[in-house]
Amino acid sequence: MRRRGNTNEGLEDLASMPFSKLEGKVYEDLDRRRSGKKMRFDLPIFSIKTSHVNLAGLNILESYTVGPSTIYITEDYEYLMHDPPLTPEERAKLTDIASKLLFLMPASVVNDERKFDEYLEKAGLRDGRFNHFLKREILGYGPLEPLVMDPRVEDIIVASSVNPVSCMHSDYGTMPTNIQFTPEETDRYVEKLVHISGKSVSLYRPLLSIRLPNGGRLSVSYKKEVSPEGSNFIIRKFPEKPWSITSLMLLNTIPPEMAAWLMLLEEYRKAFLVCGAMGTGKTSLINALCNLIPERSVIVTIEDTPELRLVHPNRFSLVVRESATLDDKGEIGMFSLVKEALRMSADYIIVGEVRGEEGRIWAQAIMTGHGGITSLHAESPQAALERLLSPPISVEKGALKSLSGIVSVGRLVLRTKGKLVQRRRALNFYDLGGNLEFTPLFDYNYEADSFSYNKESIIASNTARRMMMESGLSEDALLERYLQRVEFLRRLREISKLRPEFREYSAVTKAVWAFQSCPEGFDPGSVVITGDGTLRSQESLAEEVCNDRERHYPTPLPTLRRLRHDGQDPPAEPDSIRGWQRKRSDRSSIEGSRSRTPP
User: Fold this and answer.
1) With a threshold of 0.85, does the pTM exceed it?
2) Whole-angstrom Cα distance, residue 508 to residue 241?
3) What is the CA angle 445-352-157, rounded to 5?
4) In a 3-state reduction of DSSP, which class is residue 537?
5) Residue 197: closest CA among 181, 220, 225, 221
6) In whole angstroms, what is the distance from residue 573 CA to residue 595 CA?
7) Quick one: CA dihedral 225, 226, 228, 234, positive or negative?
8) Highest mean pLDDT among 325-329, 378-382, 571-575
9) What's the whole-number mean pLDDT along residues 521-535?
């Protein structure tokens, strides 16, 4: 008997078969498949994997929801997921529906969430649980969807099929979960993740590090080619919204006094480095510190994974290109990108992380007057300096004299409300002297979880001396500028507690630009963030509302315009807002206050 399923003729028959007949054949073959009969035209049976928790005998520290799933954090620091419950009959029905949909659904529907929802609605699926599981299995990340969608989970770790999946929680550190894959499931899951990222993995190239569709970083090892225990992978997540400097100050990650000093360094185009162990928040801190760079600066960012999300108008983003061939040709690495950045007349060259010879080129860049920020994996400033001087980076000692200092960040375990939680802290800024010696300018008290500083130490630092020599400022003038920025950032932190819009990255950046345009008397509390993200003074916004009302009401209201009609001056708009809103050729030099004459 001829096996039509394995011949071109059989395939042509399937291709020419009417859709209604093909659909009936699919259903028939699935039913036979479940009955155990061998088929000549088999379809894969779709597996729906869910997680459930028995809370009996568990001490729960915290619980919260992620979509329809509930997350429980136990006293033993376990991360337990509880999906919506399904009966055995419902699970069988859902598996049947998923298998048919996977075969019959057009590709355009699979790649579009809106069309996918419409397709399910046309198919008559009204059960929210079914829609949730179908969507997460076909469009999402399957059983790991709650981990991927949980904003407090930073890394997802699948080391092997022998142990449960683990996750790195922002508050509780690394914790095991109640999900575990078989070796076959791990292989299929790796294949799925690589496929949705538009790449391929094979026994020839079992190691892969790629970017997921949601922006996360995926590192995989496929099967047993290089890992005796089989496939494994790590998903490193990045925040959906970038951290602003006010968000980090609210979390006590960095104090306003240290942020103000770094703000001053950036305004004078000085270079500094952020060092710390893995997972200490180096990139997040760099992204937040970019809030403080002046508006019209030309900035080039260089990364292997695009994590920095600046809103500056003159920002160039360069990202490493991996090789698309088996012989690794066509790669554009960090070294080539940093060399290219030197030709772009940039005010700031920001490198996400230096690991090799690109660090040497970056050091040459800051010697020629470019401002710069980068990060380095090192447990201390001394270790960071040794890494810079040693192969493969091999920076010359003379080049490091242009480095202003090093910000040391760490992940600490603190006790809060009876619970042990992990917190990130910018522990200190170490000023770098002419002989490459370090001088700490701030102090962190672990017991009180607080920071302190000494103004005299800051003004006496090597970097402060360089800034005074280059700008001609006296000690008192430089100290006054520093204290202005301290007061501004303190005020910004207090306002953001009551007005959440001042925690948004774009709004914070624009508030900083407004301050830098006119530092004297600028108060962020006097501005309003409009719907399009622009900053307006409260007085000008109120006047606009009054004008709009007068166009609609025949009787003038007792507004600012009434005051003008009566020959009285309206309340003066703050000088800082007027200075910021008018166009200037030089934003670093602002004219003095000018009186406002009513029309």
Assistant:
1) no
2) 13
3) 75
4) strand
5) 220
6) 10
7) negative
8) 378-382
9) 77
What's the token pair of residue 347?
A: 């005010």
Q: What Rg, from alpha-carbon coordinates, does the chain have?
A: 30
Q: Maximum Cα–Cα distance for the chain, whole Å?
A: 104
Handedness of CA 464, 467, 469, 472 (dihedral sign): negative
Q: What are the b/e assignments for 522-532, b being 16+ CB within 10 Å?
A: bebebbbbeee
Q: Kindly give the pairing relationship between strand 419-432 and strand 438-440.
A: antiparallel
Residue 73 CB-density burial (10 A; 0-12 exposed, 13-18 middle, 19+ buried): buried
58, 63, 65, 71 alpha-carbon torsion, rounded to 10° = -40
Q: Give DSSP secondary structure letters for 199-239.
A: ----SSS-EEEEE-TTS-EEEEE-TTSS-TT--EEEEE---
pLDDT tens digits, one per residue of 274-293: 999 988 999 999 999 999 99
The arithmetic mean of pLDDT across residues 448-458, rounded, is: 94
H or E segment at 25?
helix 19-35
Which residue type occupies 261? Answer: W
What is the per-residue pLDDT across 248-278, written as a single tens digit (0 to 9) for each?
999 999 999 999 999 999 999 999 999 999 8
With pLDDT > 70 as the criterion, what percentage of the chain qualifies? 80
Which positions ≥6 away from 70 have C-beta within 8 Å?
53, 63, 64, 81, 82
Q: What is the pLDDT of residues 576-597, one digit of tens each?
A: 444 444 433 344 333 333 333 3
If we measure between CA atoms, which residue out of 66, 48, 264 comes closest to residue 167?
66
Phi-psi region at 246: left, alpha or beta (left = phi > 0; alpha = psi -120 to 50): alpha
pLDDT of amino acid 115: 82
Q: Is the previous residue joined to 392 through a cis bond, with omega within 30 degrees of 0?
A: yes
310: nearest Cα among 588, 41, 29, 510: 510
Q: Are 365 and 350 in contact (CB under 8 A)?
A: no
Under a CB-based contact definition with an 8 Å cutoff, are residues 400 and 272 in contact? no
**Secondary structure (3-state) at 418:** coil
Phi-psi region of 358 (alpha: psi -120 to 50; beta: other; left: phi over 0): alpha
Q: How far apart are CA 420 and CA 499, in angstroms?
A: 29
Distance CA 515, CA 434 (A): 33
CA–CA separation, 515 and 531 (whole Å): 21
